[in-house]
């Protein structure tokens, strides 16, 4: 009897380990898969990774990364001008909306998915979704003021809000706040680290839109030091010489 119980315990531990292995370093795997999908003009790489992740239901991080994959796939569809972008965003929103006991990271990603979905809505629906995104971005920051992704999505919401509705007033300030923070408070291979490079991209884009080279040039220089392989920063640096 003891031997059987011990075998069951070992089996449970092994299953938990396998589930964890599927999400260890998962962000890098997802980002690489979506890059591969974009280059090959098909979603085989990202779909294969998604199918593999969906096999792991017990891990507490699984739902987050399932939703993150939905976000990345939606960006792919946007590039293809496909209606599937809206469907995929809705699927990602549902994954995190249905989750109990959301963390700061869940709230930040949920807000990002909601922000990206606003472009497919209009009138009252767009207003409701915008308010939901604002609430979740606020919850992310309240749960952890050191989570740069909370500040990043707050900036994104302000940036995409039309000026007549009070937008584009705080995005610079909020992106700058995100850039002051570390990608992770404590190194953790299971948790996200995205957001900082994205904040650089958005802020440089914003300065370029304003024609503000006084702020753009030093920001590009700083961004290239941290992310020397980023093609957007290289292009901006060449075009502003």
* Number of β-strand runs: 0
Strand content: under 5%
Main pleated-sheet profile: none
CATH C-level of the domain at 23-164 = Mainly Alpha
Quickly give the structural class: mainly alpha
- Inertia-based shape: globular
What is the element string, with H for helices and E for strands? Answer: HHHHHHHHHHHH
Which spans of ≥5 residues are poorly predicted at pLDDT below 50? 1-21
Describe what you observe in this structure.
This protein is mainly alpha-helical. The protein has a domain at 23-164: Serine Threonine Protein Phosphatase 5, Tetratricopeptide repeat (Alpha Horseshoe), CATH 1.25.40. The protein is built from twelve helices and no strands. The chain has helices at 2-23, 26-40, 44-54, 62-79, 84-97, 104-117, 123-143, 148-160, 171-180, 196-210, 213-226, 231-239. The longest helix is centred in the N-terminal third of the chain and has 22 residues, at 2-23. The chain is globular and about 50 Å long. The N and C termini lie far apart (76 Å). The relative contact order is 0.07. Mean pLDDT is 88; it is low at 1-21.
Features:
241 residues; mainly alpha; Serine Threonine Protein Phosphatase 5, Tetratricopeptide repeat; 12 helices; disordered N terminus
């Amino acid at each position: 009897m003891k031997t059987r119980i011990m075998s069951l315990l070992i089996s449970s531990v092994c299953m938990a380990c396998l589930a964890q292995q599927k999400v260890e370093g998962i962000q890098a795997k997802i980002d690489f898969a979506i890059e591969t999908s974009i280059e090959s003009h098909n979603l085989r790489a990202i779909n294969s990774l998604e199918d593999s992740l969906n096999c792991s239901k017990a891990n507490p991080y699984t739902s987050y990364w399932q939703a993150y994959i939905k976000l990345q796939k939606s960006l792919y569809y946007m590039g293809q001008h496909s209606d599937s972008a809206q469907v995929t965003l809705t699927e990602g929103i549902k994954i995190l909306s249905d989750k109990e006991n959301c963390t700061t990271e869940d709230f930040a990603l949920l807000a990002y998915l909601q922000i990206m979905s606003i472009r497919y809505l209009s009138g009252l629906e767009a207003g409701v979704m915008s308010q939901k995104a604002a609430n979740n971005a606020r919850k992310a920051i309240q749960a952890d003021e050191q989570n740069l992704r909370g500040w990043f999505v707050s900036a994104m919401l302000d940036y995409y809000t039309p000026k007549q509705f009070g937008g584009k007033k705080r995005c610079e300030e909020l992106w700058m706040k995100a850039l002051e923070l570390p990608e992770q408070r404590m190194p953790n291979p299971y948790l996200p680290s995205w957001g900082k490079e994205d904040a650089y991209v958005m802020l440089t884009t914003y300065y370029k839109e304003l024609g503000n080279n006084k702020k753009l040039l030093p920001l590009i220089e700083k961004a290239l030091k941290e992310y020397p392989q980023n093609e957007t920063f290289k292009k901006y640096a060449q075009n502003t010489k």
